[in-house]
Specification:
The structure is a single chain. The protein is α/β, with parallel strands linked by helices and 341 residues long. It has two domains: 13-202, Rossmann fold, CATH 3.40.50.1010; 207-338, no CATH class. Helices cover 33% and strands 28% of the residues. The protein contains twelve helices and 18 strands. The strands form five sheets. Strands 4-3-1-7-8-9 form a six-stranded parallel β-sheet, sandwiched between helices. The protein has a five-stranded mixed β-sheet with strand order 12-11-16-17-18, covered by helices on one side. The chain has a three-stranded antiparallel β-sheet with strand order 14-13-15, with no helix packed on it. Helix 9 links the parallel strand 11 (210-214) and strand 12 (236-240). It is elongated.
């Protein structure tokens, strides 16, 4: 086969990646992105994002393909809330192809870490037995060589000897930092991904019932939305995003990025609001929304962390847009909003 043709065949091939996830490391760091809201990790989104990373130029130019995502965690039998959470995850994702969950009995290992919310030292119970199981499985898969890349999703320094061993074996390991990137882990891995900035794309807030996000200039539209709601008004939580007493800066930044609302400072153009900019200057953002100089898709109604219906910004025709989330909450149709559209 001619040399150029050989190169073309290589570049059009598949690059298989096996992913190994420290379950609680991801969950705890994801929850730390919000102050008052809890969050749900969407494991399929995490996998898709990491497979996409194998397509980036700093790895190679071929197509990424999942060769299996192995997710390890533990649960305490005495903790009913934790057991219920694990069951919820397994019910939703346990049957999805390519995702393999392994939960064992918790083996206590107490360490000290800083609280993500108050920055004070706290005692943390981790699961050393799970760390060992993940390590053994990762080595086993490395020996089988049924992949081009391995990925470790954790910020736990206990995995540094594992990463060092895999490097010595010539393995290409993608280190995915679940929390603050660890310098030594970065230094001994093939490439790195940080989840901190993309958590809003991988997670949604966890809440009961409906939430409506609104602002003072949207009072007329809010009444219109409430009048069409499929549930009584007292079952809806209304949040004025310009009021810091109603929603913390941290939660506002996460929500706006997660929901991907768009904004405009003139009548012509809607653009997504910059997540990093919001974190740095949320007081100005709130002021601009409060005085009407920045208009967005408000009000919008949320359920199960997803937008159900939102204002388009058009005060004439097609005032409202409904969102369809496959397999999720198809009960409320808000039909009154669309009778005249």
């Amino acid at each position: 086969m001619p040399f150029k043709e050989t190169i073309r065949v290589i570049q059009s091939g598949q690059r298989r990646i096996k992913i190994f996830v420290d379950f609680w490391n991801v969950v705890i760091n994801a929850r730390g992105q919000c102050k008052d809201f809890d969050v749900n990790v969407h494991w399929d989104r995490l996998v898709n994002n990491l497979v996409h990373e194998t397509q980036q130029g700093y790895l190679d130019e071929t197509t990424g393909e999942l060769a299996g995502c192995y997710i390890f965690g533990s649960k305490a039998q005495s903790n009913a809330q934790q057991s219920a959470f694990v069951k919820q995850v397994l019910d939703r994702y346990g049957s999805q192809s390519g995702l393999f969950f392994n939960f064992g009995e918790r083996v206590p290992k107490q360490t000290t870490a800083k609280c993500l919310k108050c920055d004070e030292p706290v005692k943390v119970n981790s699961e050393s037995g799970v760390d060992v199981l993940l390590t053994v499985e990762m080595i086993k898969h490395a020996i089988m060589r049924e992949h081009e890349y391995l990925a470790l999703v954790s910020s736990d320094r206990d995995f540094i000897p594992l990463l060092s061993f895999l490097k010595d074996q010539g393995q290409r390991v993608l280190h995915v930092a679940a929390g603050t990137p660890e310098r030594e882990m970065r230094a001994i891995t093939w490439a790195q991904v940080e989840l901190v900035e993309i958590y809003p794309l991988l997670c949604t807030i966890d809440h009961d019932g409906y939430i409506i996000l609104t602002a003072p200039p949207c009072s007329h539209e809010l009444e219109e939305l409430l009048g069409a709601a499929p549930v009584p008004r007292d079952q809806i939580k209304i949040i004025d995003i310009t009021d810091k007493g109603k929603i913390h800066d941290k939660d506002l930044a996460f929500l706006l990025a997660s929901l991907r609302l768009s904004w405009k400072s003139n009548p012509e153009h809607f653009v997504p609001y910059d997540y990093a900019k919001l974190k740095a200057s949320s007081p100005q953002f709130r002021r601009d929304v409060a005085n009407g100089s920045l208009r967005g898709n408000l009000p919008c109604a949320i359920k199960n962390g997803f937008v159900k219906v939102q204002f388009t910004g058009n005060n004439q025709a097609a005032r409202w847009t409904r969102m369809i989330n496959p397999g999720r909450d198809l009960d409320g149709d808000w039909s009154k909003l669309f009778e005249n559209q």
